[in-house]
Write a structure and sequence with these properties.
The complex is a heterodimer of chains A (about 500) and B (about 500). By secondary structure, chain A is mainly α. Chain A contains 20 helices and three strands. Chain A has one domain. Helices cover about 70% and strands about 0% of the residues of chain A. In chain A, strands 2-1-3 form a three-stranded antiparallel sheet. In chain A, a hairpin with a 2-residue loop joins strand 1 and strand 2. Chain B has about 500 residues and is mainly alpha-helical. Chain B has a domain of about 220 residues. In chain B, strands 1-2 form a two-stranded antiparallel ribbon. Classes of the chains: A mainly alpha (about 500), B mainly alpha (about 500). Chains A and B meet through helix 16, helix 17, helix 18 and helix 20 of A and strand 1, helix 5, helix 6 and helix 7 of B.
């Protein structure tokens, strides 16, 4: 038996390899660097790794290859753009994660135990969160460029497992945080099982786990259609779970609320980019020829997701839960881009993902700032009069909310417009009308928060706005600048996307 | 010369100057705002002088690529209609700033912020009338809501935040319907010669009857909320009651015109067939607005709400003139938009001074002002007369043209609408009698009359009302070619009047 060594194109894979290298160094740092030096060392390694990886992504942006890893991944424009988006979002998220006040002193200790108290007193910090973040990011980077089901599944687990852990690291309300982590893990495992099950059916249908092989079988029309339909359905369930689409959304409000806010922001933004990236690739390249089988169902999911997210968000009294439902609604809008199944839809989805991701991290960064003596204040009633106390922070949050609502001159509007017009172009008029309607509903609760902040008088209950650290501040400023710049003059980014975003099969 | 961009830039420069000013110096911020709006006004008049009246094509055309991937341009250009409305807005802006010199003091935020919002709004107002790219129009149409929202919610009185939210939700809802229509237009343009938002190109799109009707409704509902037409008007009285007088002038006098302007510029131009289909229904709504607004105005106890309901009645006239589809009706409607801006401004500003002096906006609290504050009382009287379209004042000409233009094609509507004029006499004369005449109500004895600043502010408004009442020709010469052009584009010709002997 001969064994041939795999041929890998290290240049094209380097963005992911750099991240994995950085993560491993991070693990070693945990072992060998003194406690006092760890936070700063970890932070610099993480940011350095991300920047290096981003530079590498930019360097290979015009490359295209299906053979970079023996056909397991495909390097093409959409993949590069999504990877770059994930990295940029990750960098500003790490700026937020660097604020250790959000993380438990010792994750392994029981909440309220002596052990925990001791850890707090000695100033212990969970710097493990940095390598975990890097591992998650490398999974996210791999997810949208995978071109066979096995790699896709590995990437899915790679991005999920660290996130399950990170969700449980909150410093305050630790039980809620651990419950969130457990919930996320259990439901996540469940959806992974669905995904795996679907993979098996697709293999049964086509005799292949590669995207190219499955596509050929679909185009050829030779296989058993029942297997294909079941396979597509189960794989879709796994993906829809990750993006938080109704009816697979149940985890997201609890996890958003329970997880440490910087992690929530990172998870909400970056996971969405990665999962939608993978979804776009699968639907656009593999399932495209079977579109009559899945478009009606996915349209229904999109419509329900938009309406449900917008409607339920109205009833929320907690800012993190409200943002969770808002993110569900946005998942619905993004599904419109998947359904569009045309070049405009792909461009629009990539633009939307980037714009939404940046605004989301920015919004959660603001949430981290509003605190009282017991930690963050997420009860919306206590956000009353924020505009009076700290006009700039409130104004920044208002900008993000307006972007979520899709008001012109913010990135959200351009994203919404481009994604709806792409969907309309492909004939999905019902989705567009539902989208416009739920935008109107959604505008209501975004505006309510603005009213709360600016038009009501503050109540005196010790809620205050933390002076942001330089890192948090720069994350917020960056997000604001991007959100407004992409709303006022999106042409440069749109041009880059239009030129690069073409799937290689 | 790139007039329009220049006009849009001026207020932005003013904004930048105000931002740079020290926070403590409020007077300086006001002076900068006044100077900026005056410069804009003078520049607009200078532009208007070089406008070619007989040329029905768009003038001062500018076009820059904005978002090429979607075929979106930053494209500006004006015809007679847009010119008249820009002229009205830029004349009203300095009046509002001067008249409401102390308006910003009761606000939640600083005086500086107030004037920043006003100036940003002025830029957007010029842009919204000058845009010839549908996407650009929509962006400004929606973005305009934000400064107005903060002006009402931040500087108004009473239940200001609720009024601001109601205004915003109504407008956003309409705007999103319009967005759906715009997306459909964009997609259709892609199949008929390439994606574009150019208004002229889009007006030649081929579309099925059903599509045209639906898209028309998307636009029309948005404009009918803005204008406001019965039954979509309910946000207006609340907003007008809560906003400061100056904001109300901008809201009712200028921003609501975007609705009627949009009906002409977008509904009629883009969907001529659908416009004809819906004309009967819209005319009925317009007539209902005229009568309903007038009757409710009679019943109001609050001065600001009263003015708001008179406006609903007036917007009914404007809408009727637009959809009568005659050139007189159109000219009348356009002139009406201009005149309504000034008569409403006069009512709101003088009414605002009365209210701030008395500390109450209930009409019954006034009384005998004629003796105590003669100048203020006369100004209010004149403004009221202009509002009820007394012959010799500017509104008479436009109301008459609208009625004549409507009568030639829809006599029944015109006759019912004429009752609106009778009701107008009631809704103006009753408050005039209560507030100005009769014995002086206790508490009013020591009210002060208009000061020099207020006299200077109101003088140009009254002057325009008087001069255009006697000699509307200069404006009509600008308006008529544009009106005839739209009617011709719609495929209508004016009905020939039948002689009385028949």
């Amino acid at each position: 038996m001969t064994f041939s060594a795999p041929i890998l194109n290290y240049t094209l894979l380097s963005p992911i390899l750099i991240l994995l290298g950085g993560a491993l160094i991070g693990v070693l740092v945990e072992a060998f660097v003194s406690k006092a030096l760890r936070p700063i060392t970890q932070l610099s390694i993480t940011v350095g790794t991300l920047v290096l990886s981003l530079a590498q992504v930019w360097r290979i942006r015009h490359e295209g290859s299906t053979t970079a890893a023996m056909g397991s991944v495909v390097i093409d424009g959409p993949g590069i753009l999504l990877q770059a988006s994930i990295l940029i979002i990750a960098i500003i998220s790490v700026f937020l994660i660097a604020d250790t006040d959000h993380f438990t002193a010792l994750a392994a200790s029981l909440p309220g135990s002596d052990e925990e108290r001791h850890a707090v007193q000695t100033g212990n910090q969970v710097t493990e969160v940095y390598p975990l973040t890097l591992f998650a990011i490398s999974g996210m980077m791999l997810f949208p460029i995978s071109s066979d089901l096995i790699t896709l599944f590995v990437a899915l687990e790679m991005l999920s497992l660290p996130l399950y852990l990170m969700a449980g690291l909150s410093r305050r309300r630790r039980l809620a945080s651990q419950e969130a982590a457990l919930k996320y893990f259990l439901l996540g495992a469940f959806s992974s099982a669905f995904f795996l099950f679907g993979m098996a059916y697709l293999y049964g249908f086509s005799g292949s786990v590669t995207f190219a092989g499955i596509r050929e079988s679909i185009v050829g029309g030779s296989g058993n259609d029942v297997l294909l339909l079941i396979g597509m359905a189960f794989v879709s369930i796994g993906l829809l779970f990750k993006v938080g689409a109704v009816p697979f959304h149940a985890w997201s409000p609890d996890v958003y609320q329970g997880a440490p806010t910087p992690v929530t922001g990172f998870m909400a933004a970056a996971t969405k980019v990665a999962a939608f990236g993978a979804m776009l690739r699968i639907y656009y390249t593999v399932f495209a020829n079977a579109q009559w089988s899945w478009t009606p169902l996915l349209s229904a999911v999109a419509i329900i997701t938009m309406l449900f997210g917008s409607l339920v968000a109205i009833a929320q009294r907690d800012v993190k839960r409200m943002l969770a439902y808002s993110s569900i609604a946005h998942a619905g809008f993004l599904l419109a881009g998947v359904i569009a199944l045309n070049k405009a839809g792909l461009d629009a989805s990539i633009f939307y993902l980037f714009a939404y991701g940046i605004a989301t991290v920015g919004a959660f960064a603001i949430v981290t700032l509003v605190r009282d003596s017991g930690g963050e204040v997420t009860d919306l009633n206590r956000w009353k009069g924020l505009g009076k106390r700290s006009p700039w922070v409130a104004a920044a949050f208002a900008v993000f909310l307006l972007a979520f609502a899709g008001i012109p001159l913010t990135s959200g509007f351009i994203g919404k417009f481009s994604i709806f017009s792409a969907a309309y172009e492909s004939g999905a008029k019902g989705v567009v009308i539902a989208g416009v309607l739920s935008s109107a509903i959604a505008a209501f609760f975004y505006i309510r928060v603005i009213v709360l902040m600016f038009f009501t008088d503050p109540i005196q209950d010790g809620t205050s706005v933390e002076i942001p650290s330089i890192l948090t501040r720069s994350a917020i400023i960056f997000s604001i600048v991007v959100t407004i710049a992409l709303g006022v003059y999106p042409a440069p980014l749109l041009n880059v996307i239009t030129n690069l975003a073409t799937f290689i099969r | 010369m790139i007039w329009l961009t220049f006009l849009m830039l001026l207020p932005i420069i003013g904004t930048a100057v105000i931002v740079a000013l020290p926070k403590a110096n409020e007077t300086l911020a006001k002076q900068v705002a006044l100077a900026t709006t005056l410069i804009v006004m003078v520049s607009t008049i200078a532009m208007a002088v070089s406008f070619q009246r007989d040329n029905v094509e768009l003038q001062f055309v500018e076009k820059y690529a904005w978002i090429p991937s979607f075929g979106i341009n930053f494209a500006l250009g004006i015809d007679g209609l847009a010119l008249v409305l820009i002229l009205m807005s830029t004349i009203l802006a300095p009046v509002v700033v001067l008249a409401g010199w102390n308006e910003a003091h009761g606000g939640r935020w600083s005086v500086k912020t107030f004037y920043i919002l006003i100036l940003v709004l002025e830029t957007m107002i010029i842009g919204v009338f000058a845009a010839t790219d549908v996407f650009l129009f929509y962006v400004i149409f929606e973005a305009m809501l934000i400064p107005v929202y903060f002006l009402i919610g931040g500087y108004g009185t009473g239940n200001r935040s609720a009024a601001a939210v109601k205004f915003l939700i109504y407008s956003l809802f309409g705007g999103l319907l319009m967005l759906a229509s715009i997306i459909a237009l964009y997609v259709m343009s892609g199949t008929q010669g390439g994606h574009t938002f150019d208004l002229a190109t889009l007006s030649h799109l081929q579309m099925s009857r059903m599509t045209q009707n639906l898209l028309f409704l998307g636009f029309f509902i948005a404009f009918a909320i803005k204008a406001p037409l019965w039954p979509l008007h309910t946000w207006l009285p609340d907003a007008a009651e809560s906003a400061t007088p100056g904001t109300s002038v901008l809201l009712l006098g200028v921003l609501d015109k975007v609705g009627t302007f949009g009906m002409i510029r977008y509904c009629l131009t883009l969907f001529p067939d659908a416009s004809k289909t819906f004309t009967p229904m819209i005319l009925v709504l317009a007539v209902i607005s005229i009568v309903y607004g007038a009757i409710l105005a009679i019943g109001q106890r609050d001065l600001k709400r009263l003015i708001a309901f008179t406006s609903i009645s007036h917007f009914g006239f404007i809408t009727m003139g637009i959809f009568a589809m005659t050139s007189q009706g159109h000219s009348g409607a356009t002139l009406y938009m201009f005149n309504h801006g000034f008569s409403t401004a006069a009512l709101f500003l003088v009414g605002g001074w009365m209210i701030s002096r008395r500390g109450s906006s209930t009409i019954a609290d006034f009384g005998g002002l004629q003796r105590v504050t003669p100048v203020m009382a006369w100004m209010f009287f004149l403004a009221g007369m202009s509002s009820l379209a007394l012959p010799g004042l500017s509104s008479f000409v436009s109301e008459f043209l609208v009625l004549v233009g409507t009568f030639t094609r829809y006599p029944v509507h015109a006759i019912i609408a004429t009752f609106g004029i009778v009701l107008a006499a009631l809704y103006i004369l009753i408050p005039v009698q209560k507030a100005l005449h009769g014995p002086t109500t206790p508490g009013n004895e020591n009210l002060s009359d208009l000061n020099l600043r207020e006299k200077i502010a109101i003088a140009p408004v009254i002057a325009i009302i008087l001069v255009l009442g006697f000699y509307p020709a200069p404006l009509l010469k600008v308006i008529n070619p544009a009106a005839t052009h739209v009617i011709a584009h719609m495929g209508f010709s004016d009905p020939v009047p039948t002689s009385g002997s028949k």
